[in-house]
Amino acid sequence: MRLEEDKEETSLRVVNAMKIKKEWDEFVYNHPKANIFQTSYMAEVFERTKKIEPITLVVIDEETDEILASLLSCVMKQTNILSSFTSWARIRGGPLFLDNEKGIAAVSLLIQSYDSIIRKKVLYTDIWNLGNTQQLSMPIENNGYIYEDLLNFLIDLTKSKEELWEGLNRDKRRGIKKAKELNIAIEICIKKEEIPICYDLLQETYKNAKIPLADISLFESTFDILVSKHNAVFLFAKYDNKCIATQVALIYKDTIYAWYTGVIREYLSYHPGDLLIWHLLEWGAENGYSMFDFGGAGNPKKEYGVREYKKQFGGQLVNFGRYKKIHSPKKLWLAEKGFEVWRRLKR
Predict the structure, then answer these.
(1) pTM recorded for the entire structure
(2) Helix 40-47 to helix 21-29 angle, to the nearest 10 degrees?
(3) CA 222 to mean position of chain CA atoms
(4) Residue 233, CA atoms < 13 Å, CB-side half-sphere
(5) The total number of structural domains that make up the chain
(6) Residues 142 and 160 in one domain
(7) Do 188 and 274 belong to one domain?
(8) Picking from 13-27, 157-171, 233-247, 319-333, which range would have the lowest pLDDT averaged per residue?
(9) Distance CA 110, CA 236 (A)
């Protein structure tokens, strides 16, 4: 019996997922919790983005050549100098694994291998769940990850447009009507030369929120790789032929993901952001999509103004949570103090 256990353990091998990209994408696509954030497409986007490093791993059963588990993590680097004091990692929508005994063993090995790679690179890893992950809790928590609540809103796009409209808060319906009365137009960005316009809108919003924004190369690579595959769309809201708001959404299988949004502050009362979201909901319902993922609504124990905004679109509030592991507590303490100073200087 002991020999059989040893044989099963040694049959599992961790490899770079990008070396078997086709097989990896097939594994993700056919997984019940498939999402765009765990695909090779996103790995390629991150690979081309400044200050982001993707880590791609799969576990293979060497006896069958079957993929049992996979993950894509992205390392976010705020600076190139002393990067281990300012970098963190996120695994969004993963890891994915087969829901059986071998899959559980594989995901545990996957996390251990990942931790050995990542521990000197970042302050912490954040595993952001996009669905119910009860089966993941034991192998994740056994490897030092701690669960915390994280909310999100999901909107059912199988409803009719009339049902979606009735599901909106009264203020949202008024805002959308006002935007239409002002003749605000929604247009798709079809030229890469327009990405800087999108980025300027995002920068204004993130600057006002005092949140660092990814480099423009993230959006350029997203346009290059994902738009042609119909896995991303860049939208503009235009008033008097001027771009006053933008929404960047990702698309995969039957789900639309709200990803980045930006608006010129002086035009907030025109409600271009409301119209952009409504456009995606309406378009999704018309084109056979099943779900709109609002991209997170914060920890329920903390105030989060964006949560109240998203709530008004009538989605279902879910709490899939996230797991977090601090790889370097002392460095994290120093980094948090530095971030507080940075935010005060931005006031």
Answers:
(1) 0.90
(2) 130
(3) 13
(4) 19
(5) 2
(6) no
(7) yes
(8) 319-333
(9) 40
329 and 295 in one domain?
Answer: no
**Does 4 score more than 50 pLDDT?**
no
Using CA of residue 161, residue 162, residue 167, residue 169, what is the dihedral sign?
Answer: positive
Q: What is the largest CA-CA distance in the chain?
A: 75
Radius of gyration of the chain (CA): 21
- Work out the pLDDT band at 334, boundaries 50, 70, 90: low
Q: Bridge partners of 185? A: 238
- Give the C-alpha separation, 256 to 232, whole Å: 9
235 and 110: one domain?
no
Cα(179)–Cα(185) distance, rounded to whole angstroms?
9
Residues 92 and 70: their CA atoms lie apart, in Å, by: 12
Q: Checking DSSP bridges between strand 255-263 and strand 291-293, what pairing results, if any?
A: parallel
Q: Is the CB of residue 43 less than 8 Å from the CB of residue 226?
A: no
Residues 90 and 165 occupy one common structural domain: no
Residue type for position 285: A
Provide CB contacts within 8 A for 303, sequence distance 6+: none
Q: Which token pair is 82? A: 């002393």
Domain that holds residue 57: 2-150+322-345
Residues 98 and 161 in one domain: no
* Domain match, 142 and 11 both: yes
Q: Assess whether 313 and 225 both reside in one domain.
A: yes
